[in-house]
Design brief:
about 30% helix, Rossmann fold, two-stranded parallel ribbon
C-alpha cells in the first residue's frame, strides 16, 4: 500500500462519496460515512474476530497467501487483508457499483494487490476468478440469498485453506418431525427464516432477488460440515464487540479444508 500522495481530483472523488466503511487515505484523511460512522463498530468487531481466526490458522503469518472476498461490497475487508500481508486478493461482488467503489478506493490508497471484478457468488469458478484461494471470506451475504447452501458449496469449491462466514442468523428449532409417516421421524438439524427484501432490491446493502433465507447458527454449522468443511467453529466475539455479534444475532463461523 502506497503512502504517496494522490491527485487532488482522485481524492475529491473519494471524499465526495458517502461510504459504508472507514478508509484512511495516504494523507490521513478519512472517508465520509453513513450515519457519521455509527456503523463502524460492526466492521471493527468483524475485523478483530477475523484476526483471531487468521492467527489460529496461520500463526506464522499470511505472507504469500491468496484470498477471495465474496460479496466484497466496497472492499473494506479486502483492503484489511492486504494490510495484513496477503499477496493477492480477489474481490468479487454482484453489483457493478460496488466493484467500481473497490477500484476507486484501491486506486486512492495505492493498493495493487486487490483485483476487483463483478461476479455473482453462484457463478464463481476457477475459470471466472482463479483459485482456489488460501482464504475465502463470505461476510454479510448468506442472509440476503435465496440459495445460501449453493453459496456455501461455492465457497468450499474456491477454498484450499480457511473459510470465514459472517451472517445474520435466526432462532433455531430442534426436535423430530414426521417424515412420510408417524412411524418414521427425522431430527431437525437447523432452520432457515424467510425474509422479504422484494421491495428493497434497489438498496446497495440488500438482496439482488429479494427472497432471503437466513440460517440458524446450528443449521449453518451443520451445512458447512456437510458441504466439506472440517473443524467448523463458532468464533468468539470480544466482550466489548458489536451487540449483534455479542448476543448471537449475527455470528462468525470458520471452517478449514
Amino acid at each position: 500500500m502506497s503512502n504517496d500522495p494522490i491527485s487532488a481530483e482522485l481524492k475529491q472523488r473519494i471524499l465526495d462519496k458517502t461510504w459504508f466503511y472507514r478508509f484512511d487515505l495516504p494523507d490521513g484523511t478519512q472517508t465520509q460515512r453513513y450515519e457519521d460512522g455509527a456503523l463502524d463498530p460492526i466492521h471493527d468487531t468483524r475485523l478483530r474476530m477475523l484476526d483471531d481466526a487468521l492467527k489460529a490458522c496461520w500463526p506464522d503469518g499470511v505472507a504469500g497467501k491468496s484470498a477471495l472476498d465474496i460479496a466484497c461490497h466496497q472492499g473494506f475487508f479486502s483492503v484489511e487483508l492486504a494490510k495484513r500481508g496477503f499477496a493477492q486478493i480477489t474481490a468479487v461482488d454482484a453489483r457493478a457499483d460496488h466493484v467500481e467503489d473497490v477500484k476507486l478506493i484501491t486506486q486512492g490508497i495505492g493498493e495493487e494487490r486487490i483485483q476487483a471484478q463483478q461476479c455473482d457468488v453462484h457463478a464463481l469458478s476457477s475459470d471466472a476468478v482463479g483459485g482456489p484461494f488460501d482464504l475465502v471470506l463470505c461476510f454479510g451475504l448468506l442472509y440476503h440469498l435465496e440459495n445460501p447452501i449453493g453459496a456455501l458449496r461455492k465457497a468450499r469449491e474456491m477454498c484450499s485453506g480457511l473459510c470465514v462466514v459472517e451472517t445474520q442468523v435466526v432462532p433455531n428449532m430442534s426436535g423430530n418431525v414426521d417424515w412420510g409417516s408417524y412411524r418414521y421421524v427425522k431430527p431437525l438439524m437447523g432452520t432457515f427464516g424467510i425474509i422479504d427484501e422484494t421491495y428493497e432490491t434497489h438498496g446497495m446493502e440488500a438482496s439482488v432477488t429479494g427472497i432471503c433465507l437466513a440460517p440458524s447458527t446450528a443449521g449453518l454449522m451443520w451445512i458447512m460440515e456437510k458441504v466439506g468443511f472440517r473443524d467448523v467453529q463458532l468464533l468468539e466475539c470480544p466482550e466489548d464487540g458489536y451487540e449483534q455479534l455479542r448476543f448471537g444475532k449475527r455470528v462468525m463461523v470458520s471452517g478449514r479444508v
